[in-house]
Here is the input.
Amino acid sequence: MDNVNLKDPQNPSGPVKIRNLKMHVDRDLCIGAATCVAIAPQTFVLDSEAKAIILATADNDPDNVIIDAAKGCPVAAIIIEDETGKKIFPA
Here is the structure.
């Protein structure tokens, strides 16, 4: 875990900006199901506490894949907003 390249090392679960999306993982909700990792492996990985964190390579996953990963989360722990602050998921 120590050598993982994070989008924001100070805030591994965000909030971070990826193109026109602002997103973060609610660590209190995250249960480590890893569905997000399966759907968007260049965006998410689980840390040593089995919580999703956001990788520096997140820009390589298309927006729709990142949104699908959020939708795949069984507890809706990934919050995504557009550039105006409007919630994309969960709606």
